[in-house]
Give the backbone structure.
Amino acid sequence: MNLLLPETTGEALALLARHADAIPVAGGTDLLVHWPTKGRDHDRTYVDLSRLSELKGLRWTDDELVLGGLATYWDVITDQRAALELPLLVRAARQVGSVQIQARGTWAGNIVNASPAADGVPVLMAYDAVVVLESRRGREEVPLADFYTGYKEMRRAADQLVVAIRVPRRRHAAQLFAKIGPRRAQAIAKIGLAVTRSAAGGGWRIVAASMAPTIRRCPALERRLADGPAPRAPEDLLPAIEQDVTPIDDIRSTAEYRKRVMARVLFYALPDLQT
Ligand SMILES: Cc1cc2nc3c(=O)[nH]c(=O)nc-3n(C[C@H](O)[C@H](O)[C@H](O)COP(=O)(O)OP(=O)(O)OC[C@H]3O[C@@H](n4cnc5c(N)ncnc54)[C@H](O)[C@@H]3O)c2cc1C
């Protein structure tokens, strides 16, 4: 294993530019899961980001919360303002793995790992987060809702680091995070749902996890709630759900269960979301 240990972001970006196949390592909680069985990965080059102090933690500006490229779930869980202003971040963070994973795992790692079942990505997407990428070629900002282009494919080049995630500060009239899984901790979502509604953001954001090859917004469902007649039963939401997502049968659940439970979770939350 070739492990490179840059001291600064500049050094890390130079290493990524020089080693085209190098892999950044943040908390390592995704990268190391399959390590024992992925012998072919052992000889690759890794860039350990852990010494890049400028990427650690989070900060608030007048307009946004800026999560550093190494901000962990624990950084958010322990931030009192996050609980007040962007509570879905805290709710999702508390449901990631266990305390040990929350302490090591980063929001940027969750984004780049690109699991369709991730818990951090849906809430960030429902808050209109923007991914800030940097390489020796310059800086680029991509809305998280446009970041994924296919299963495990994204608008990030190999030499780019996620150096920050910008989350707008808005007043939300409604917010929901729901993770449906076999248990509360150490579980992979069968269905994930993040919902926000804000006047400043232009209305509804409905984001589904474990329902398609990528986590994605649900524009048909958003239009249905904004402009359609009030649904009278969960099944009234199914046509829009079927336009937005393409769940599969797998070891955790079936496509039919996923669609029906998503409809029920959303339908029964509507009285709270629409007040
Ligand atoms: C026991 C266990 C339970 C878990 N439970 C959950 C759960 O409930 N919900 C959930 O969503 N996830 C869960 N995970 C997955 C994982 O913890 C999260 O996805 C975590 O956020 C990954 O962050 P990391 O810093 O550890 O990423 P790493 O493993 O270091 O990296 C993940 C990927 O992101 C890339 N990367 C990391 N940082 C950057 C950066 N700044 N710029 C560019 N690329 C970068 C890496 O190259 C790699 O491809 C679990 C993992 C374990 C081991």
